[in-house]
Design brief:
The chain has about 190 residues and is mainly alpha-helical. The protein has one domain (about 15-185): Intergrase catalytic core (hpI Integrase, Chain A, Orthogonal Bundle). Helix content is about 50%, strand content about 5%. It has helices spanning about 15-25, 30-40, 45-50, 85-95, 110-120, 130-145, 150-160, 165, 175-185, and strands at about 55, 60-65, 75-80. Strands 1-2-3 form a 3-stranded antiparallel sheet. The longest helix has 15 residues, at about 130-145.
């Protein structure tokens, strides 16, 4: 669900997402790369924490995520990411020189959650949607409702087994819904 019990959205708007990216870029290198990886992959916080050097394909422009909510290990998905993220990952983590099996971030899930929450506060994200999961939901909403990425591609990138799960992101309202309607008006 992308709304809580009181009707508040559980995703960041495009503007909030951009503010989060700017706030992340003001952080130290590891916090910045972690926040940007969450933002540009739509992955879960534990999936990003599990990333290893070998999961980042600089020449292919992809990050390979192991889906951790599947009932078995070894289920992977590849997500195309912007060159700017790949460049930051290379510069901060020295990927071409690092041991392929080395983890990119060695924090606990709790530490990572607190760091992301702090960046959200710096970005003035409203408290009702200031969570790492809101970045995953924003990835889905912006992909489906605003960027018009085909639903099956967003499904693949988010690692959903059912298209119905991904289709919830088409239920955006407010500015997102108005943006969709604007395409009909023109």
């Amino acid at each position: 669900m992308i709304y809580d019990r009181t009707g508040n959205r559980k995703y960041l708007t495009r503007d909030e997402r951009l503010r989060f990216i700017r706030a992340a870029q003001d952080q130290s290198g590891l916090v910045e790369t972690f926040c940007l990886t969450l933002t540009y992959t739509g992955a879960r916080i534990s999936e990003v924490l599990a990333l290893r050097v070998a999961n980042v394909y600089l020449t292919g422009g992809l990050i390979t995520i192991e889906s951790l909510k599947k009932r078995r290990k070894g289920v992977f998905r590849q997500i195309p990411v912007p060159d700017q993220l790949l460049n930051r990952l290379e510069n901060e983590h020295m990927l071409t020189k690092a041991y392929p099996n080395a983890r990119l971030w060695t924090w606990s899930r709790t530490t990572a959650w607190k760091l992301v929450k702090s960046v959200m506060e710096d970005a003035a994200v409203p408290s009702f949607c200031a969570t790492p999961r809101a970045l995953r939901h924003a990835f889905g909403v912006i992909g489906v409702a605003e960027a018009q990425v085909p639903l099956h591609m967003v499904q693949k990138w988010l690692g959903h087994s059912r298209i119905e799960t991904t289709a919830i992101y088409a239920n955006a309202v407010g500015a997102e819904e108005r943006s969709i309607a604007h395409r009909m008006w023109n």
